[in-house]
Request: fold
Amino acid sequence: MADLKTISGQLAQIMIDIGAVKLSPETPFTWASGAIMPIYTDNRLLLGKEEYRSLVGQGFCEIIKLNQIPTDLIAGTATAGIPHATTLANALKLPMSYVRSEAKGHGRKKMIEGPVLQNQSAVLVEDLISTGGSALKAIKALREEGMQADNCLAIFTYGLEKATKGFEDNNCNLHTLLTFPDLVEYSISNSLITEKQKEMLNDWYKDPFEWGKKL
Reply:
């Protein structure tokens, strides 16, 4: 298996090639929140090929091994985390569940579908971390069901301060295959962006929610 740095580099190239991530500081995107941002991510495009899904799974396996993360069950966030949680659970030969964004309105009104292993360690899988709200909500649900949920794996994070603080406040470790600074460095090293674009992207990173107001 390739080391984590190699996997991260391969993943960065794939995401750029297939349009799963786009950097556009001159003509930024409007996120669903209304914020103006120079980056847009759609990790669902990574579902398109087995080799992409496998690479994500390999990266997650490497993170678990390197950090010696106790893992009895893999839990995916609905819906984006489910396919990658499936790949990881299959690779580790572990049980898997998924966590709904809201409890069902009927039946047993569960948030967690699949097995719940009391007093054992669940590792949450998410595809993208922006503010971290949905992942932390899933962590809370796992804990409320009696599981130890102290680690979240994600493909990509913007590295926003709100997310960093949220994970710290909730005593949950966030492990990602790729970060925004990683992506910028990879892009400049491979001549995919200019020095001016790098400077603009780094300016956004310092103050992401105010950056768009300056344009």
User: Anything to note?
Assistant: The chain has one domain: 4-214. The chain has eight helices and ten strands. The radius of gyration is 18 Å. The beta strands are 21-23, 29-30, 36-37, 39-41, 73-77, 96-99, 112-113, 121-129, 148-157, 173-179.
